[in-house]
Design brief:
This protein is mainly beta. It has a single domain, classed as YVTN repeat-like/Quinoprotein amine dehydrogenase (Methylamine Dehydrogenase, Chain H), CATH 2.130.10.10. It contains four helices and 37 strands. The strands form eleven sheets. It has a four-stranded antiparallel beta sheet with strand order 2-37-36-35, with no helix packed on it. Strands 3-4-5-6 form a four-stranded antiparallel beta sheet, with no helix packed on it.
């Protein structure tokens, strides 16, 4: 098949002299037959413990926490699978060790979203230490830097039929010896002024506290930064005072501007990365935070993977294809052409945004996510955005599989109408004095690596892919699925050389579609 590939020029971000970082797969773990793990969320989030040389993997398929021995990274072995099904569905895990003592925290959502979830504390062997009730749908958690606190994002999603919409919240669990003290930061006291610029968009009658849905947590010093993906915002938490310091609206990216192009159609059988009159909401899923020099001072920055996400609960949805929208003729005089399938017509748009004058048609167009990763300062000011680099890189280096799906082969261009390669999450690691960001591209199944030591001067350093596009499979034909490699990276964990069983830095990737968890050895060359 002959496919159109328009001329592509990589941005200057990847040009010039920079350290090249390579990812070499060492070994892969899975708990089950490959076909049985297909798209079952059998490997979602992973954390490594240097005290035991074990990795802890959230297995959503079995409602369990899988513990693997990775003393020999080329041959991970399952030690134990901790059944958590009596409490509900595990969503996240983190580990903290001091000396030879390991403490594991697991966020477990209740079987019904209308009920509160729990954080389960285990020792390194997987034995129960304690259970703490938290908010509704604890989706992610992380220890602070000295292990005295766990911060939990309680997403508070509606039930599938939208009969109940619990309030989102943030839990802080303080740890003193074997005692756990829980405080919940709620949003009931927030006013419209407090969330100015934040996307509050639920159905009529939804309160601010119900609409805010914490997703992911990063900690730097005495502050936590919590993404609220659907709200296009980050909540900054003062951990010392255990209160909200600020609710930071993230704004938009203008895809009509140079450097922010995107491919918007899955029906043109082409790579066509171009500028279009739409605004992208960042809507980050994963977030990480770090300290970096800014002139003479050091300050905190947070890094976001700008996935985007729609709301679809019961009969409610905030997503529609642009060809189905009534566009304002003054704002879009060429609407008929613009709404063709080969142009903007197929792109998923946000239906709650864009009717500026309230007359029932759309004066502006907004889309989910920005297909990029970004760096913001601690006050929410955008410092860097990768723009169309991720999509352009894939188009240049993997043109036959551009914007493909993670759950089937031969899916060229099939994700262009949605969120493209779909940046899912990010983790950071320091190597030889440089800070690197590892960005998981969920649909394409690759890992992009950037040197972000200077947030104002970012360079691309490498790209990792452990997927074999030549292996044919789909949900009805899984006989060769195990040979396809890693699909759908959902969780990342960086292991420093000091903590690594190989003496070299590692990246561990949990892949929810293939159900695999792979350890990569990281090498850097100048």
């Amino acid at each position: 098949m002959n496919r159109l590939i328009l001329p592509l020029i990589l941005p200057s971000l990847v040009a010039g002299a920079y350290a090249e970082l390579s990812l070499e797969p060492l070994g892969t773990a899975r708990n089950g037959d490959p076909a049985s793990l297909f798209d079952a969320s059998a490997a979602e989030i992973v954390k490594f413990d240097s005290a035991t040389n074990q990795m802890y993997v959230v297995n959503g398929s079995a409602d369990a926490l899988d513990i693997f021995d990775v003393s020999t990274p080329t041959a991970p072995s399952l030690v134990r699978s901790v059944d958590l099904s009596e409490l509900g569905n595990p969503n996240s895990v983190d580990v903290f060790s001091r000396g030879h003592r390991t403490r594991v925290a697991v966020a477990v959502g209740a079987p019904s979203k209308a009920d509160r979830g729990h954080v389960v504390f285990l020792n390194g062997e997987g034995d129960l230490l304690d259970t703490v009730e938290v908010g509704y749908l604890p989706d992610m958690l992380t220890f602070n830097e000295n292990g005295t606190m766990v911060v939990v994002a309680n997403e508070g999603e509606p039930t599938d039929d939208y009969a109940v919409d619990p309030e989102g919240s943030i839990s802080i669990i303080r740890i003193r010896g074997n005692r756990y003290h829980h405080r919940e930061i709620t949003f009931g006291g927030l006013t419209a002024d407090d969330v100015e610029g934040v996307r509050i968009s639920g159905p009529e009658g939804t309160t601010i506290a119900q609409d805010l849905e914490p997703e992911y947590v990063a900690i730097s010093g005495q502050h936590a930064f919590v993404t609220c993906q659907e709200n296009n915002a980050v909540i900054k938490i003062n951990l010392t005072e255990r209160r909200i310091a600020a609710v930071l609206p993230l704004g938009t990216i203008d895809h009509s501007k140079l450097g922010h192009a995107l491919d918007v159609s899955d029906k043109d059988d082409a790579i066509r990365i171009a500028n279009w009159p739409i605004q992208g909401l960042f809507m980050p899923d994963g977030i990480a935070a770090y300290r970096a020099r800014d002139g003479r001072r050091t300050q905190t920055y947070f890094v976001t993977a700008n996935e985007g996400d729609a709301r679809e609960w019961g009969d409610y949805t905030d997503e529609a294809r642009i060809k189905s929208l009534n566009l304002d003729p003054s704002a879009f005089p060429l609407a008929e052409t613009l709404q063709l399938d080969a142009h903007l017509g197929r792109l998923a748009a946000i239906t709650t945004e864009g009717d500026i004058d309230g007359d029932g048609d759309y004066d502006e167009l907004y889309s989910f996510g920005t297909r990029s990763f970004s760096i913001f300062d601690e006050n929410g000011t955008l410092v860097f955005d990768s723009g169309d680099l991720l999509e352009t890189y894939i188009a240049t280096h993997y043109p036959e599989d551009f914007n493909g799906a993670h759950d089937e082969s031969d899916s060229f261009d099939s994700r262009s109408d949605a969120k493209g390669p779909e940046p899912e999450t990010v983790t950071l690691g320091e190597i030889d004095g440089h800070t690197y960001a590892f960005i998981a591209l969920e649909r394409f199944s690759g890992i992009a690596v950037f040197d972000i030591t200077n947030p104002h001067s970012v360079t691309m350093s490498g790209f990792g892919l452990n997927r074999d596009f030549s292996v044919s499979f789909d949900e009805d034909h899984l006989e060769n699925f195990g040979a396809a490699g890693d699909l759908g990276p959902e969780g990342l964990d960086f292991v420093s050389a000091k903590d690594s069983p190989t003496g070299q830095p590692l990246l561990i990737v949990a892949n929810e579609v293939s159900g695999t968890t792979t350890l990569y050895q990281i090498s850097v060359t100048e």
